Each structure stands twice: as C-alpha cells, then as structure tokens.
Amino acid sequence: MSNEMQEEISPTTPAETVAPSTSSQQDDGVPRTDAEERDPYHVRLEGDEDPKSKTKVTKWMAVIIICSAATCVTCTSSVASFTQSPMQEQWHVSSPVTILGISLFVEGLGLGPLLLGPLSEFYGRNFVYWSSFSLFVVLNLPVALAPNIVVYLVFRFLTGVSGAAFLSVAGGSVSDLFANEEVLLPMAIYSVSPMIGPVLGPAVSGFINQNTHWRWTYWVIVIWAGVELALLVFLVPETYVPTLETRKARKLRKSTGDEKYYSTLERSDKGLMHTIALSCLRPFEIMWYEPMALLLDIWAALLLGILYLTFEAFPTRVFGRDRGFNTQMSGLSFVGIGIGMVIAIASQPYWIKVYKEDRIPYWERKMRAERQKCMEEGEKGDKSATRKREPEPEARLLIGMVGAVLVTFGLFWFAFTTPHAIHWVVPMLATVPFGLGVIYAFISIWTFLVHAYRPYAASAMAGNSLTRCAFAAAFPLISTPMYARLGVVGATGLLAGLSALMMPLPFVFYHYGKRLRKNSRFAL
Length: 524
Fold this sequence. Notes:
Keywords: Membrane, Transmembrane, Transmembrane helix. It comes from Tulasnella calospora MUT 4182. α11 packs across α12 and α18 crosses α20 (about 455-500). The chain folds into two domains: about 50-240, Up-down Bundle (Growth Hormone, Chain: A); about 275-524, MFS general substrate transporter like domains (Growth Hormone, Chain: A), CATH 1.20.1250. It has helices spanning about 35-40, 55-80, 85-90, 95-115, 120-125, 125-145, 150-175, 185-210, 215-235, 240-255, 270-290, 290-320, 325-330, 335-345, 350-355, 360-375, 385-390, 400-415, 425-450, 455-500, 505-520. By secondary structure, the chain is mostly helical. It is built from 21 helices and no strands. It starts with about 35 loop residues before the first helix and ends in a 6-residue tail after the last helix. It is about 70% helix and about 0% strand.
C-alpha cells in the first residue's frame, strides 16, 4: 500500500473534495493496484452499497447531525467566557488562571486531530464519532463537578482533545456522501458550522450565568452532547469506503466459508503508530518548506485569534457594565458576528456558481473553453487533460480577497466607534462584516490548501488547524493586558492593522501562486 492512503483528503478539517478519481482509484481515495482490480476475491462496493448512493434524506440528515455536533464542540470552547467571574470568587484565583479554561480547550482542539484523527483510517468514521463523543460527554462531567481549578483546567484540555477527534473526520463523512458535483453546498455548510459554535457560546453562557449557577453552563453542554451522541449512533451511517469493504469481506468469508475474500484495507502494510507519526510530523514539514501554506496558516491563525480574543474583550471592555449591559446582554453582543456568518452561509450558492459558471476571470474562462473544446473533439477519455483544465487552485482565493477586505474594514470601523459617546449599536454593526469576512477567508484558505496540496491535503489542513488553535489559545490570555495598556480603540486598532498587513495575501497568491507552485515539493 502506498503512502498516499495516509494522506487521503476526507479526514481533514473542513474542506472541499478533490476531482473525480481515475479508474485505478475509487472515490474513497485508496489506491488499487491492477492486480487488485482484476482479482475476483478483492471485495469492492457495488451499487447501493456505496455511501454516495444513499437517499437525499439520509445524506442531509447525516449532514445536519454532523454540523450540529461540530457546533456543539466548538460552542463548548467559548461558554467559559462567562463562567470566569463566579469561578474566581468561588476558588479565589486570578483572571488569567480562569482564562486558561478557554486556552487549554482550544489547545486540545489543535492537538487532537494529530493524535486521534488517523484512527478513522483503520476503524472507520463511526468508531471515531462514537468513541470521541462518548469521551466528550464523560469528560465534561468532571468539568461541571470540578471541586477546584486544577481539576477544571485538566478536564477542559481533555474535552478539547476528545472533541477535536470528532472534528478531524466529520468533514470526511460529508465528502463521502456526495459526488464531486454535489458536495460544494453541504461542505460549505459544514465548513461554517464549527465557526458558529464559538459565537453561540457566549450567548448561551450569558443567559445561564445571569439566571443560575455557573455549573449549569456545563450541564447544558453535557445534555446537548448526549443528544448529539445518540443521534450520531442511530442516524449517521458509516461512510468510509475501506471500512465498508472490510465489513463486506468479513461477511463473505463467513457466509461462503472461503477465506480468500479480502479488502484493500486488510492487505495494507501500514501501521497505526507509523500513521500517527506521519500525521504529527508532515504538517510541520509542509509549513517549513511551503511559504504559501505557512503564510495562509498565519493569516487564518490571526483571524481565529482575534475572534477568540473578543470573548474576553466584549464582556469586559466593550459591551460590559460601563454601557449598562448585564451578563445576558453582554452575551448577546456577539449576535452581529453570528449574523455575518449566516450571511456567509446564505451567499455560498452564489460563490458555487462563480466556480461553476463563467463568472470568473478571463484566464480561468479560457481554460474552461479549452476543456469544452477537448470534450467536443471526442477526447473524453483523456482524463488527465480534462483535469488540467479544471480551475486552478488560485481561483479559490477570489472569495478570500473579499473576506480580507471585509475583515479589515470591520475591525477599523469597530475600533473607532467603541467610545461610549457613540451608541452601542454602531460598533455592534461593525461586527457583521467582520463575521462575514472571517468565514469567507477561512473557506478560501481551506479550499486553496486542499486543491493546491492535494496529495498532502490532510497534512496541510492539520498544520493549518494546529496554527489556528495555537493563536486562538494565546489571544485570550493577552487580551486583558493589551486592552489595559492600549485602551479599546488602540488595542482594536492594532488588531485591524495586523489584519491590514495580511490583507494582500490572497491577492498576491491569486496572481503568483501558480508560479510558486511550480517550484514546490508538495504542491501540484
């Protein structure tokens, strides 16, 4: 078995799937040798056995459950934003210590996919879903019952790791269920769902902490996660093709008594520990040798870091008691970001048309015209030529250009309208383009990485996830001293300036990315 199996696209964080596969490789991304293709005992899925053949109801039910479960995991990261004050009073600890409740959880989200994500390649998607979400439910119990800050922080980190294992393969299930021409919309919806969670968290936490004890914040998470676990067990089918083929091979051996039947996964010579080691090392290798991947990772990390910084800044510095906001109202101050993200979801059909139709720049339209001419001349069998005429990965940066401008614009608008002399609705409106731009930027970065580094997309996305989570964990810790020294206008203006420095990236890579990829050891 070649190493490409270890770099399959589907177990990554949110991203699109790749182009249709060739005859020697099924849509599951697992290479087959010519001997395996001819061997009558080599088990493959046929007809309705393929996950892509399931009914639309089954597919979309699975997508909805997976998206809501992803939202639950990421929502858990930010619900801690309103539990800090009561914990400080109860356990007599400082604010930076309680902020670690957010930071450690997010660090767990970054490390979990490296360590636990490869399990799906051996045991399937559902094994990871059931085991990781069961742990997520169980490990949240000590958080809700924590007798001291040490127990609380340790189990916050562990819940982050277990939740990340789910996120590491959830996008793969979406791509398993839909053909390449159908996957854009469900994948776009899934890509946004983990980003909605952190914005929803403060609203949930603010309402609970205004009306009852802080521990109920985590009891609500336990209940929500328990419901999601039940839905995952009973309503989400296994979608990983190698696992389904292995199950079929076992049934055939049992029913026929013939031990010759086998699946590709059963003949694989790779080991679990080797796969985990590769999963941990290759993301750093890509970031070291690929400047485009590194810079896009830093841009994504900055955006997520700013988003998580708002969980500390909004309740205490911007929309706190100085403006007459109680805990519940402060939690609702994140509604503007959420509205921007919802607009991003609603606009995805338009962006899908941008890629599918001639609403793209001239050089892309020219490639489409050449592809059409090739097919009209009867060269349909030349799949490699057809694939070369697909839009370049740089086309995915178009939405990122819009996102980069919106984020910078929203942050500057927010920075200069936060003084109390200006009505609170004005800075809150500024968070709408920020939320919209953040989602546009993430979708652009993720899809570009998957298409540009297609053979190593899993590692490229893992590196992006690790970098993002590192920044998201650090930014809440620096928010208090930064806002104390620079003030609200100065601190937010600094963030806007950093965003402005990163804004040219999608424009530069859009025009020069193809040239840079020619000299790359990992990119196509």
